[in-house]
Design brief:
The radius of gyration is 30 Å and the shape is elongated. The two termini are 58 Å apart. It contains 10 helices and 7 strands. The chain is of the alpha/beta class. The longest helix is centred in the last third of the chain and has 15 residues. It comes from Novosphingobium bradum. GO terms for molecular function: methyltransferase activity.
């Protein structure tokens, strides 16, 4: 697999934007940030809070005096800009650039300019290609972190990142556990007259069974529900047995 691309921020102005860019990077598996002549120096105390936990990216960020120095080891450099700025270069979307990065050897870099002015012509001239996002022609105003996240996301789509899950799914409870839960429901409801009149008892029990088997309870859920039923059966002053 091709090496992960480097994110290069050229003359970034605000620490908050550097932090937000780091957050965008790490969300999609990128951790190597390079800074070219940051306006307020480095490290910047405003970057940390804005990174929202992406401290690894900030701690490892390298600072360079020029863009040429920052991309010295990168064979494939992509300048992100909404205009060609008088330089004739191939123009790609983030998706096309990401596809190239995965297909070709050597290190690659996405280069982003200052928040207000973007990359200068000399900066763009160092690149292999220009990356431009198809955007509303009447309002082209992406901020730095948004531009970074678009490129990082397109790269990640082809990087086989593992999709996190919120929990490990448990297998469905076996039938005997469901029968035990249903029997406990019936034992609690019977003395309270729930299954009356007798002519409707069978249909009521069947409806109850259908309802309790429909959710697909797992073992833990069945145990939890039976614990709830046991608690409801006890008198308030009666301690739990066992």
């Amino acid at each position: 697999m091709a090496a992960k691309p480097v994110i290069v921020l050229v003359r970034p102005q605000l620490g908050e934007n550097i932090g937000k860019a780091a957050r965008a990077m790490l969300n999609f598996g990128l951790a190597e940030m390079r800074l070219v002549a940051p306006r307020d120096g480095w490290p910047n105390p405003s970057a940390g809070p804005a990174a929202a936990g992406a401290d690894l990216v900030l701690e490892q960020a390298e600072v360079f005096e020029s863009l040429a120095d920052a991309v010295h080891d990168c064979a494939n450099v992509y300048a992100t800009t909404v205009r060609k700025r008088g330089v004739t270069k191939p123009v790609l979307t983030p998706e096309e650039a990401a596809r190239e990065i995965h297909a070709q050897p050597g290190r690659s870099a996405f280069v982003f300019g200052p928040e207000r002015s973007g990359l200068e012509t000399d900066d763009v001239a160092l690149s292999r290609a220009i990356v431009t996002v198809p955007i509303n022609p009447e309002f082209g105003s992406l901020n730095l972190a948004q531009a970074v996240i678009l490129c990082a996301y397109e790269w990640s789509k082809q990087a086989d990142l593992v999709q996190p899950t919120t929990e490990d799914l448990l297998p469905p409870a076996p039938q005997d556990e469901l029968e035990g839960m249903i029997g406990q429901f019936e034992a609690l409801l019977e003395p309270r007259g729930y299954f009356r009149p007798p002519s409707r008892a069978a249909a009521t029990r069947r409806t109850l069974r259908t309802m309790l088997t429909k959710p697909g309870w797992n073992h833990l859920e069945v145990r939890t529900m039976r614990g709830v039923l046991s608690a409801l059966k006890r008198r308030p002053e009666e301690p739990e047995k066992g």
